[in-house]
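Tutorial, part two.
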Amino acid sequence: MTVANGLRLRGAGGRLTARLVASGVDQLKGRDWVLVGRAGSQTRRLPVEEYSMYGDRVVLKFRGIDDATGASELVGQDILIPCNGLVDLPEGSYYIFQLVGLTVRTRAGREIGKVCDIVHTGGTPLLAIEPGPGGGPSTREEILLPAARSICTAIDVASGCITIDPPEGLLELYGI
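Running the prediction step on this input gives:
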């Protein structure tokens, strides 16, 4: 599971600034190592020497990577942990991988599409939805909906569905 994405170097000492994904910082607590690479492809195991928060980012230092050259190889890479090591989330909280692929329907049952990503904007995360048969005109434009509890009224990971009750006019912005 991806917990962060390597963004840029932090100083010359081999530190990496990374964008957290969902509850990524919680997943780093007490962890001796992480995987670095791309989910579903080759990764390498790196020992975590230390990490600290810097605003809404995390700064990571890996044992054995002590200069900018070594850390630059991590820019653009995902920071992953095995799914069997996940921390339990509070009731009503979800990992991104649990939401991607879920079908989004209105309370009336109209299928809008499937969640293809979660977009973090600094405020309420947005569900990026790939339109389905009932999801608007023939354009393949992504539909972005706030992942607010007032809009996402029910999330059922087991049945693969998110039920939404968007405010009037929101879906009309996408021709739905």
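The two ends are 33 Å apart (CA to CA). In part three we will examine how such features are distributed along the chain.
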